[in-house]
Amino acid sequence: xxxxxxxxxxxxxxxxxxxxxxxxxxxxxxxxxxxxxxxxxxxxxxxxxxxxxxxxxxxxxxxxxxxxxxxxxxxxxxxxxxxxxxxxxxxxxxxxxxxxxxxxxxxxxxxxxxxxxxxxxxxxxxxxxxxxxxxxxxxxxxxxxxxxxxxxxxxxxxxxxxxxxxxxxxxxxxxxxxxxxxxxxxxxxxxxxxxxxxxxxxxxxxxxxxxxxxxxxxxxxxxxxxxxxxxxxxxxxxxxxxxxxxxxxxxxxxxxxxxxxxxxxxxxxxxxxxxxxxxxxxxxxxxxxxxxxxxxxxxxxxxxxxxxxxxxxxxxxxxxxxxxxxxxxxxxxxxxxxxxxxxxxxxxxxxxxxxxxxxxxxxxxxxxxxxxxxxxxxxxxxxxxxxxxxxxxxxxxxxxxxxxxxxxxxxxxxxxxxxxxxxxxxxxxxxxxxxxx
Length: 437
What we know:
By secondary structure, the protein is of the alpha+beta class. It has helices spanning 25-28, 77-134, 139-195, 324-335; strands at residues 8-11, 17-21, 34-36, 42-50, 53-57, 65-68, 71-73, 230-234, 242-251, 264-270, 276-282, 290-295, 298-299, 303-304, 342-348, 355-359, 361-368, 371-376, 386-392, 402-406, 412-419, 422-423, 428-434.
């Protein structure tokens, strides 16, 4: 029997009602049939109220649909129903056979009575003939009586013959009915044998094994799928444990939207309905392997599973002058001082511009009396550094003046010594530049 798919249906989540449009449920469905809803899941038909309304179990689990496609599939339970109907027909036929046997007995008895009537009529004909011979006067009457008796005898004989024919017909009918009953009983036994080992419609609690499958059960059906994994479009939806394939676009993807990098393999492991873990692998090893967890029913963000590469340390041998890689690493550390340390500093003679000691300073040029340009070895990253300039006649003296820095540039800074309104040279000049990187 083909599946019934005419019209459309409207379904609501967590509802047992299915409302059809353009459907004829009464003529094309029955309780126990399988109903495949617009969500692709299977349900059992539990009641058919009209041509446009039926009930299913369990309640509909998918999203609401106003005009969705569906299918009604007959189940193996039809064979069992046919066997029951055939067994009932056999009982009716057997009852008819019993009635026929009674009719045969009655016909046989009628045939016997007709035979006796034939014998009596024949005897009467003989007596009439004798009477005709003995009495000439009664000859005509006797002959007439003889003729009537002969006619009666012939009629009785014909009746007996018809009774025998009827009996034979009834016997043949009885034999045919008995053969039909035997065939019906055999068909009923065969039909019942077909149902042995077959699962009935609805839930079954006594199935211990399934043999002869030629198509692997899908992961959604509790199997492990075929050689190629099942493709999914929503990794956030409830999934059975197993392996799936992901395409360019899928809900919960590592890369949102339509992205070639979303193609790969997804593995699902459920701990319970609220806790699970998914791992995802790209088609090749050009992208890291990702993992995410579902806690309290909420999926967390994807996390890179690739282990951090182990650090490689080279052996230090010989003198420090030979360790160029170590020197470069240390120099790189020194080139960007923390903000709490001086980025550059210099101690110089204000009268000549001669540098006594320095760090990060390439040169000091006395451009005029009490005016100097300090050039940095490495340009500053910006002009938001803090230059501090102090000066005195010599170390350990207390003769104040007004030294200050101005015109800070990335490559240099200008500084001056001023006493009141007069520019002067001082023997001890110190500049410090703070700010770091």
